[in-house]
Amino acid sequence: MSVEEEIKKLEEEIKNTPYNKATEHHIGKLKAKLARLREEIKKSKSPKGHGFFVKKSGDASVAIIGPPSVGKSTLLNKLTNAESRIGEYDFTTTQIIPGIMEYEGCKIQLLDLPGIIYGASQGRGRGREIIAMARMVDLILIMIDVFTVNEVEKIRKELWDAGIRINRRKPDVVIRKKDRGGINIEFAKKCRLSYETAKTISLEYMSNADIVIRDDIGIEEFIDAILGNRVYLPAFLVVNKIDIKEVNFSTDMDTVFISAKNGYNIEELKKKIFEKLELIRVYMKPEGKKIEDKPMVLRRKATIKDVCKKLHRDFVKNFRYAVIEGPSASFPRQRVGLNHEVKDGDVITIITH
After folding, report:
1. Which domain holds residue 163?
2. What is the rounded average pLDDT of the residues 291-307?
3. CB 213 within 8 A of CB 192
C-alpha cells in the first residue's frame, strides 16, 4: 500500500468512526498516524529550485490570499505604491507583488499572492510555494468577492492543511525529549485529552519524553504541539465588489466589505489591518535631546528590552535603566527596567553605562 493509499484509508476510517469517550483513544491514534504520513508526503514533494521569495520590509507584513480574479491586485494598488498588473481574467498575477501601506506612522508591507488553487497545500499549481510565503507574514487577509463567497471554507482548509492556524492560540505544551525512561505526561490543569490518548499520540512520534500539558486541548492541538511546525496567525475576511451585487452570508471571521475599484470602505480596511497587527508606536528621547519625530513601531506587549534590541544589541548589555513618560508610566519620568511593558504613545529615554 502506498503512503497516499494509506492516508486515504485512515481518512475514511476517521470519518466513519463516531467520536465519543470510548473511541477517543482509537481516533487519537489514527489522527496521529495520519498527521505523520502527511508530513512525510510534504517532505517528499518539497519544491525544487527557486520558489517565490520577497524580502520582508516595513514594521509588519500582510499576505493577501484568495481565488484568482477577486481584485487582489486592484486592492494592493489602492492601498500602496505598488503597481500590480490587473486583468479581467484568471492568473494575471504570477509572482508575489509587494507594496508598502503607510498608516498612523507605520509602514506595513502588503503582499499580493498569486490566486490560490485548491490542492495548493499538496503542491498543486505552485501552491506550496505560495503558502510557504504566507507562513512568514504577521497577518493573513483572506480576500473573496461577491461571486466567490462559497470559497472561504476551501481557503481555510488549504491554510489548515499547510500548517497555518488562523485566529488560534498556540497550545501551551512543553516537550523535553530524553534518551530513556519512556513517555511521562503531566497535566498542569484540567484537560479534554485523557492521559491514555495523549500517550498513544506521543508514541507515534517519540519513545522517550517528559511532557507537560498546560492547556485544555484536544487531539488536533496536541498533535500540532508535537509536530512543532505550525504557525499561528491572525486573519480576517475581505469581501470585494459589493458595488456590483449585494451579498448576504454568515461567518465566524471578522469581515470588511469593500469595493477596491471605487475605493469604498478602504479607510475602514486600513484601520482593521492596523488593529489586527496590534502595533504600538513609542517615541525615543535621547538623553539631553528632544523627542524624535519618527516613532519606533513594536508589537503589543513589547518591553524595554525589545526597544533596546531594536536600537542596537549593545543597549541591552550596557543597560542601566529607562525613563518613561506616557500611558505605561505610573508617574512622570518613571524609572523602569528591561521587563517593563511599553504602551502606544510612550516617550522613552534609555540610560546606559
Report:
1. 60-168+231-277
2. 95
3. no
